[in-house]
Each structure stands twice: as C-alpha cells, then as structure tokens.
Amino acid sequence: MLKIYNTLFRKIEEFKPLNPPKVGMYICGPTVYDYAHLGHARTYTNSDVLVRTLRWFGYQVKVVMNITDVGHLTSQADTGEDKVEKKARLENKTAQEIAKYYTDDFWQMCVGLNILKPDIITPATQHIPTMINLIKTLEQKGFVYKTDDGIYFDTSKLADYGRLGRIDIKGLQVGWRVEKRQKKHPTDFALWKFSPSPSADGSGQAQRQMEWESPWGIGFPGWHIECSAMSMKYLGETLDIHTGGVDHIPVHHTNEIAQSEAATGKQFVRYWFHSNFLDIDGAKMSKSLGNFYRVKDLIDKGYEPLALRYLFLTGHYRTKMNFTWKALDGAQEAYKKLKALISEWVDEPKVNFDNKFNNQFKTAIENDLNLPQALAVVWEMVKSPIASGNKLALIQEWDKVLGLNLGQKGIRAKGQKMSEEIKKLINLREKLRQEKKWQEADELRKQNEAQGHQVKDEKIKA
Ligand code: AMP
Ligand code: ZN
Fold first, then answer.
1. Which one of 125, 341, 352, 425 has the fewest CB atoms closer than 10 angstroms to its CB?
2. Which of 242, 247, 272 for mutating ligand 1's site (highest number of atoms within 8 Å of CB)?
3. Residue located nearest, by CA, to atom 5 of ligand 1
4. Which atom of ligand 1 lies at the shortest distance from residue 244's CA?
5. Are 144 and 191 in contact (CB under 8 A)?
6. Ligand sitting nearest the alpha carbon of 312
7. What is the rounded CA–CA span in Å between residue 309 and residue 332?
8. How many beta carbons lie within 10 A of that of residue 100, not counting itself?
9. What does pTM read for this prediction?
C-alpha cells in the first residue's frame, strides 16, 4: 500500500486516486528565463521518483508539466517585470528566443539526470485562450474585480482561502494598507495584467513583447492562472496529485486552489506533494554568492550526472538538503562502486527472485518514498551472498524506481566486459556526433546495436 505525505492535511496518507488505475499528475515546471540549477535538479528528480514509483505500483500515470514562458513577475506581489521579458530586454533577444534557449537547457538537465519526459508539456504562451476562459468563469461567478493594472481574484470571497499554506490572513491584514493600485486584500492576486500603455504610465515598465487581446484589455496572464487552466484542461477538474517545491505552498499553489475551486466548486487536488529545498554549502543558491551551479558545471568538473541523482536519493524528499562537494564526491564513489559490482554479476537464465529483499525495498518506497532506506536495502542486498543472477534481477527491477541506469542489458552486455573494439566504435561515434555528422554517427549506432550494445544518446546543443 503506497502512502505519501499530503501537504493539504500535513500527514501521511494512503494514496487513493480518483479513478484507479489511472493517475493524473501535474508538475509545476520551470520559469524559463535562466539556467536550471542544482535546486531545480533536486525538485525534478524527486517528482521523477514519484512518477516512477506510481508506475512501479501499477498505476497508469498521465504526467503534465507546464513551461512558464510568460507571466511570472520578479515580485510575488504582482508587481515588477515579467522574468522572461526582462531577460530578453537585457540580452537584446526576443522573449521566444529566451524561452526556447532555457527550455532546451532544462530538458538537457533532465536527460542527464534520467528524468522521464512528461506525457504532455504545456507552455503557457500556447494556452492563453484557455486561461481567458477560466478568468471569464471566475468573473461570471463574482470572484474578480478590476484595478488600474489588471483583473484580480478576490480572496475574501472564498471561505477557506489559504488552507494549504495555513495562512494567517488576519495577521497579514494587520498593518497592510490598500495599495496604490487598489488591491483590496493583501492576499488578492492578479489573474490578468494590462500591458503598460506605450505613453509612459508611470510604472516605469518597458513595452511588452508578449501580449494578447482579452475581454478586459490587452495584456498577459498572471502566473498562477496558467497552472489551473492547463492542468484542468488535460487532467480534468480534480487532479490526483500535484507537485512542486515547498516555496510554492503559501502563494502559487494556494492561489491555484483558490482559482480552480472557485471556478468548478470541486476539490482541485487530492494529494499535494512538495519537495524541500537544496542549499549549497549551507547557503541559499544565488548568482551573487557565486554558488549557482548547473548540472553542466558538475559534468565539466568530471562528475557523472547520475552521481548527483544518487546523492539526491540519499536524502528524503521532505528534508532540506545541503549540497557540498564532499557529499558529491562520496555519492560519486558509492555510485561507481555499485556499478562496478553490478558489472561483475552474471545474467542467469533462471533466477529465483528474492522476495525478502524485494519486500524490504517495497516497504521503504511505499512509506512516503523513503529512498535513503531503499538505498540501504540496495547495499544490503548487494553485499549479501545470494546468487548474482538474483541480484541482477532485483537491481533491474528496483532501477525502475531509482532511475540510476543500474544493471541495464546492453550496457552490461550480460556480464561480459565491453570489448576494446566496441569501445572504439562508441568513441568514434561520439566524435562524429560532436562534429554533427549525424548520418555517419547513425550508421555506427546500427553497427553497435547489431553487436548487442544499445546506444543511448544525450542531446547535443545545436
Ligand atoms: P522556478 O523556475 O523558479 O519556477 O522553479 C521551478 C521549481 O524548482 C519550483 O518547483 C521550485 O520550487 C524549485 N526550486 C527552485 N529553487 C530550488 C532550490 N534551491 N531547491 C529545490 N527546489 C528549488
Ligand atoms: Zn505552477
């Protein structure tokens, strides 16, 4: 029985989807205005482990992830510049160029970390009419009001606004004064923002590149509305599970619930899954502190991206994690040792699947994804005296959850070491790919595969 912690009730619950074996899952995706960093790597690795776990438990999971390419402002208070537009202005590029560049960077990070691609990927800019329709519904139901700079959601109209984040609404109101732009309550938030008028409107904002017609005027959507509109479009009005980082609890996810439930009158999400943060050397990651690292920086320093994935699995997803180079060294050593041991195991035609270890592994996973415990079971099994064929069968099974590329057929070539000839072919092919000689590289891939070596590529930037 799979149990996970539900932020909504602050407790571990048995996971029961609405229409088993189907599961609808929404992952809050990245805002594509900068490189994906190690904190993103952790959060998306954790949601990937969740997807893999649900599938391992036999659920048919439909995964939807958004790409925020419009509407996320530099301030949580619905003021400031659009992050993507700001970057475009600074780099003298179009907003689309910025979004594409950083979206590609994000997927490249995911490939390195073995994070499965979602079934449906939804860029916000491609769903503006869906968002406008949702705002229209909210307007018809009396949940919105207009100010100088946009259409706002009136949070005082919802009796249980803020229950996800346990927000102290009265406390927030103390000392809060009606803002210049006439927001009625501190927790109200923008659904639609008007484009600044070309003649200076006093906001100091540059003219926008991305804007759309709407019943309320030319403008762009607020950040939160995209996730409500797109998740419900692809997964229905009630999602089984919704994920994101813990920073999203008090504002973004709280507002997603408000908009969705006000529009449908139904529960929006059954289980809220939140991943805790990654700090670097005990500090918050930031460019100004010089501790903003990408997965690519690790690769350049000679680390395997899957060693980072291994490191993430050594911490529970709800616990804050502190990244240090020493910890990464330790993870890389452990990961390499594990792979070296596995490469010695021999595939056997008949294996006696060891249920004792498998049950221990399953127990760890089903207890709110206790990956540190699951890794302990892995090592116990690896060091145990059971036959290597059994070990291989177990590790191949468990890797469906771990995603560490352990014991894969083809790569291990059934207990044989890779021949020198094959190694040469693989290296030559990698060189051709780097030189963008795709056709020749593909011919070599076929040769490799004909010899029983599956070749899996990582994307190369154009
Ligand atoms: P953003 O691109 O800022 O919208 O963030 C995308 C996702 O990454 C969100 O779910 C954030 O909560 C998560 N995230 C951002 N910074 C960190 C961090 N330092 N550690 C863990 N997760 C993070
Ligand atoms: Zn979101």
1. 352
2. 247
3. 30
4. 10
5. yes
6. 1
7. 10
8. 15
9. 0.87
Burial class (CB in 10 A: 0-12, 13-18, 19+), 350: exposed
Cβ-in-10-Å burial (0-12, 13-18, 19+) of 290 comes to: exposed
Rg (CA), the chain: 24
- Give the span between the Cα atoms of 144 and 146, in whole angstroms: 7
Rounded to 10 degrees, the C-alpha dihedral 66/460/83/282 comes to 90
Residue 316's identity, in one-letter code, is H
CA distance 233 to 227: 10
Does the CA dihedral 38-95-133-219 come out positive or negative? positive
Peptide bond just before 17 cis, omega within 30 deg: no
- pLDDT band for position 354 (50/70/90)? confident
Per-residue pLDDT reduced to its tens digit, 366-425: 999 999 999 999 999 999 999 999 999 999 999 999 999 999 865 444 444 444 555 555
**Vertex 398: Cα angle to 395 and 403 (nearest 5):** 100
- Considering every ligand atom shown, identify the ligand nearest to the alpha carbon of residue 257 and give its number: 2
Residues 99/69, Cβ–Cβ less than 8 Å: yes
The bridge status of strand 11-14 relative to strand 22-27 is unpaired
CA-nearest residue, atom 14 of ligand 1: 40
Give the count of alpha carbons within 13 A of 307, CB side only: 22
Backbone angles phi, psi at 272, to 5 degrees: -100, 120
Cα–Cα distance for residue pair 339/242, rounded to 1 Å: 33
